[in-house]
Amino acid sequence: MALSQSLNLRQTQSLVMTPQLLQSIRLLQLTHAELEQFIDGEIERNPLLEREDGADPAQEPGEPAQEASRNSAEAISERLDASLENLFPDDPGRREVIGPELSAQWRSAGGAGISAADTEWDLEAIAAAPPSLREHVREQIAFAFEEPADRLLAEELAEGLDEAGYLAADLEEIAARTGAEADTFEAVLATCQGFDPPGLFARNLSECLALQLKARDRLDPAMRTLLDNLGLLAKRDFQALKRLCGVDEGDLVDMLAEIRELDPKPGTAFTTGVSDPIVPDVVVRPGPDGGWAVELNPQALPRVLVNESYFAAVSAQADGEGKAFLSECLQSANWLTRSLDQRARTILKVASEIVRQQDAFLLSGVRHLRPLKLRTIAEAIDMHESTVSRVAANKYMMTPRGLFELRYFFTAALAAADGGDAHSAEAVRDRIRRLIAEEDVKDVLSDDTIVDILRKDGVDIARRTVAKYRESMSIPSSVQRRREKKALAGTGA
Looking at residue 272, what is its pLDDT? Predict the structure, then answer.
């Protein structure tokens, strides 16, 4: 069999993930905060991109921001008479008491901000930041210990605090590293546990609550026994707690009320992190024709423009390499604006179909939420299921019934007992929550009883599913609820 070479022309199809397509897919799944950060980064890299920001309404047209700020500062200074020239009436005039060289250095460091006419006065730039947990503890360490060795040991313990204020470090390792004796170590730790706020340097929850009760002079033997048996409290085994603590129901309820007033995480009061607010991507309002008006939220739409006039002016004077760079920037900027527009239209399309599918929920509440799958929306709007999944992730819709994530409307289906329409898992979960909220001490519903009630309402559900939904809502079992209700009923609460 002879071998030979030949040329053949064949036409095939293949999917190529271009950088522009990858960018569009990435933008589609970004949240509002992540999208703003991405656009800020693109604006820094691309000189042809700029934001379409409006002017400050409080500023007169054409008035520079610095000039407006200076005029405002001068007006306030005149009204409050903030000048230092007349501070001492017997002083014949204003004098330089620190010398011209030091005065110039002082002004360069911001000292001239005393006079509103010399420079601008930005109070936010010089305002002190709130102290962190470790800074707050170090201030107390400086006054609580006189010996340098004790102070060093206390600072080592402070480094082991977590965000909640608990001592999460290995105490044996700290003792070995610092060479502290056992008595000294316990004395330093006891002093640190007396710092403000009470509960710091605790090694577990029981010790944290005990330190706070000790500061209130309420750590008696009965309360100590209660803190040693927090596991029984979590199970709501009040009969065992009464027997161990040697108290009656009234005293036990009072002790539980005191524990509820304590802070299980005292260190979180010094947390200075800022959380991003949720900005809805879609707003749903009742329409004039009785339907629903679905609109994109203008605050969630980034306004990005391509400065083509700047491109024309600069490219006319650029060389070959500069023109290639500007052309690449122009192409990238145009792709970004198109991707943002495609992202907005896709979100609106998916949200409109969700509103059409869940019209009963918007009218009557969560009990009328329909089971919905991503495939149902994808087939209705002729999109791929993965695209709908990216749109539903971390996007929010403002409705007359509140703010919901788009994924909230996609719930599993539970079969109907009579063969009718399926029920939404979220609607069934809400039904379970309402049944438990309406029960009394004489009629606490078990999981089997809830199954019977739901089946009478046409929901085919298993007992383990009821238990799973109940635990997901942090609702205790019927035995624990019965114990708690009896303890509260015994005191007339």
Answer: 64
| CA–CA distances in Å: residue 304 to residues 114, 174, 307, 346 | 40, 54, 10, 18
Task: Band the pLDDT of 58: cuts 50, 70, 90.
Answer: very low
- The β-bridge partners of 389 are none
Q: Quote the CA–CA distance of 35 and 86 in Å, as a whole number.
A: 54
- Residue 167 Cα to chain centre, angstroms: 25
What SS3 class is residue 440?
strand
Q: Are 202 and 215 in contact (CB under 8 A)?
A: no
Q: How many helices (H) and strands (E) does the chain have?
A: 23, 8
Measured between its terminal Cα atoms, the distance across the chain in Å is 99
- Spatial distance between the Cα atoms of 37 and 172, rounded to a whole number of angstroms: 44
Rounded Cα–Cα distance for residues 449 and 122 (Å): 65
Which amino acid makes up residue 174? I
What torsion do the CA atoms of 352, 353, 354, 357 make, to the nearest 10 degrees? 130
Kind plus residue range of the DSSP H or E element containing 344: helix 320-357
Q: How far apart are CA 176 and CA 170, in angstroms?
A: 10
Look up residue 391 and give its two tokens.
Answer: 């749109």
pLDDT confidence tier of residue 412, bands split at 50, 70 and 90: confident
Using DSSP, state whether 104 is helix, strand or coil: helix
What is the model's pTM?
Answer: 0.61
Distance CA 210, CA 201 (A): 12
Dist CA 54 CA 310 (whole Å):
20
Give dist(CA 297, CA 403) in Å, integer.
Answer: 13
447 with 478: CB under 8 angstroms? Answer: yes
Question: Is 242 strand, coil or helix?
Answer: helix
Any idea which residue has 């760079």 for tokens?
Answer: 325
pLDDT digits (tens, 9 = 90+) for 226-264: 999 988 888 888 888 888 999 887 888 888 889 989 999
Residue 295's φ and ψ, nearest 5 degrees, are -135, 150
Q: Which of 255, 195, 196, 197 is nearest to 222 (CA)?
A: 255
Please check whether residue 429 is in contact with residue 469, taking contact to mean a CB–CB distance below 8 angstroms.
yes
Q: CA neighbours within 13 Å on the CB side: how many for 381? A: 24
- Long-range (24+ apart) CB contacts under 8 A made by 408-412 are 409/354, 409/357, 409/358, 409/361, 409/369, 409/372, 410/372, 410/373, 410/374, 411/369, 411/371, 411/372, 412/371
Helix H segments across 358-444?
Answer: 359-364, 374-381, 385-392, 425-437
Contact yes or no for 51/333 (Cβ under 8 A): no
